[in-house]
Amino acid sequence: MADVATLRKANARQAAPGRVTTGRFGQKVRRNLSAYGFLIGAVLCFTFFSWYPIVREVILSFQKAVYGTDTYTWAGWVNYVRIIHDPTFWLAWRNTLEFSLLALVIGYAVPFCVAILLNELRHARGYLRVLVYLPVMLPPASALLLFAYFYNPQYGVFDDILHTLHLPTSQWVFQPGTGFISVAMISVVIASTWMNMGGATLIYLAALQNIPGELYEAAELDGAGLFKRIRHVTIPQTRLILIMLLMLQIVATMQMFVESWVLTNGGGGVGNNAESVVMLMYQYAFELSGSSNYGAASALGVILMLVLALFSGGFLWVTRERRA
Amino acid sequence: MRRQLQRRSGGRMIAAVSVVAALGLGAAACSSSNASPTSSAGGPVTISINCAPTQAQNPIQHKEWVKDVATFEKANPKITIKSVYNNPCTNLPVLTAQLRAGTEPNIFYIDFTDLPQVLAAGQAADITSYVNSKTVPTLKDLVPSAMKAVTAGKTIYGLPTNTYTQGLIYNRKLFSEAGLNPNDPPTTWAQVETDAKAIAKLGHGIEGWGDYSAGNNGGWHFASYMDALGGTTVTNAVPPTAGFDNSNGLAILQALHTLRFTDSAMSKTQGLAWGTLQAQFGAGKLGMYIAAPDDVYNQIVAVDKGNINDIGMGPLPSLTGKPAGSLGGGNAYIFAKSDTPAQIQAGIKFINFEDLTPGKGVTFNYARAKADGIPVGFDEPSLFNGAAGAQVSALRTKYTTINQSYYKAYVDANEVSDGEPFDAQAVYKTLDPMMLAVLTEPTVNIPALLKTSATNVNTLLQFSA
Predict the structure, then answer these.
(1) Check: CATH 1.10.8.50 for A81-318?
(2) Does residue A286 sit at the B interface (CB-CB below 8 Å)?
(3) Which domains are present in chain B?
(4) Interface test with A, best of B5, B8, B90, B436 (most A CBs within 10 A)
(5) What residue ranges do the domains of chain A occupy?
(6) Residue B98 neighbours by CB distance under 10 Å
(7) pLDDT tens, A42-93?
(8) What pTM does this model have?
(9) Looking at beta carbons, which residues of chain A come within 8 Å of B218?
(10) R_g of chain A, CA atoms, integer Å
(11) Cα separation of the two ends of chain B
């Protein structure tokens, strides 16, 4: 049985909860001081290079430059109205959605299929893994300049092959056509897939190698062929990775810039059929001389950010694990 | 045990704080291309200036520049020149970003068309009180249009260093090989078509005609063609509007489309920007394209190793054979708003020495240019009238290395320089897709294309005006 003095001390602590909380909180802070110290660096980096630019962009999207000075003034919705009335704005969005869709069909499925293939191989797997990842190690501009050379209608190797096979040649990235699925955009997707698939392939391969072999054995014993094993074992077991990479891919493809830029020499293609939203943003900010407008570029950036945020939020909500 | 833990925690804390401090210092460190002013009156002064020729692309001009800087600094020991080497000299996205951030060099190079943007950004220094016949002895002889390009109202913001007027550059050797008269360049679009077809028949990757359709250069060339036909790309109305959706615009685009698809006299590779046609021409694979004379001595011969004896110039193609005008432009050095009076004075002194003194500097030292193998004798830049103009002409004639008769057709045409349209770079950018469509779509509807392009230009002008 506790003595009276101990009980009084306990009551005093209860009567002065603030003092007790601070003490515990202070202890917690002091215990983790070094961790917080290391965290400050990351927080500062994010603050200066991520959060501050985002906040600044939102503010800038509602501002316009004061002529003859380097200051800005409030402009309301003027920048948003301007870009929405620009025909190229809608074209850029359409092109970007086209790219994302094609990248989904080509650039999402292909790495998964290659990973399955690599997983099935017994020999030279290491060598093939390096080969698949090699394009990722190339600087994007170099890889795309290579493809620009391949796509050249005059001396490019692709048209040479088509000509040899007595097939009609193409202007690839400079192929005219503003239909929803255009040769120009398919050309951009092919180049982009070649450049980027290595990383996704290795992630899928790692996920595949974590699938217990007994599941495949059981499926084989039940008479499942290759495609049934993929459908009923491989895909469910890698579902989380597939979902995450799908979301990351869509978000990344919606921000496509360097592929279109390099392949079209900054021009956006015939009739701007390869101009993406981010390319248009760059154009608004830097390429229109006296009409260059950081406010308009920021407005477009804010719209892109909202679209991607809504998409990501919706995607994560739809694909959340449902608890029984 | 507790003390050991505390010592370890303390050590970790020191490490953590050191990391944060290092990051903070790293984030705080920023460089500016502006040289620090340093000086009080009469003290040492440093100025940064860009568009210094690069070693890789212009080795001869680079050598001359370095020598000139050394000579100037020796004669002016208190002035240090910090050269910023870049090629090309003008890069619009870089300039735009620099103007917004205020990080341009003390003296920065622009196209004439860029001054409005510089003034809008509030980044130009008023140098009116520093520019006079003592600081720039050739001031009174500078052509009015060149000074107008660096002036707004009565305020001077820079000094012009170059002017140009476009004409037709053609390969005399290919003309001869194709059975054409090399002394008779085409002057109409019909003649261009005939000659380009003949040259393209030579085969081996040789094209008859070349044109741009990217990097703002497609729109730039289109504007030049419009001037030659007596039209205008942007009207002088208030507010300005697109002025090319008419018979002149149609004629130009039709001519280019015919050259590309009917005559097969143009390359299948399109979407070309500045630098590519010069390289093709220098390699002897291109019969004709339009450009200013400085393309010959600054690029085709100097960088792309073309043969000066194979090059001739004529007037811009028109419908009548006599161009109504030509797109004329130029370049200037502008002084940054942040420059001190000492830097402005030093900068004017250097530009006067390097670019505005007959017989001196990288522009007018024709004796040295001849000795260094740079072609001499072109009629550009036409910066001066009066005594200075006469002096420059005499020096050109004395040290000429080119056969003047090869350029007679261009000189005799005496094209009127029309200047550049309102918000030129933005208009050119917007017209690049139009040029690209004409050169890549066999079945393009040219009237519809003109209408769409005019709408796009009007949308742009609506916001920039």
Answers:
(1) no
(2) yes
(3) 45-165+329-399 (3.40.190.10), 167-327+415-464 (3.40.190.10)
(4) B436
(5) 4-76, 81-318
(6) 21
(7) 999 999 999 999 999 999 999 988 888 888 899 999 999 989 988 889 999 9
(8) 0.83
(9) 267
(10) 28
(11) 75
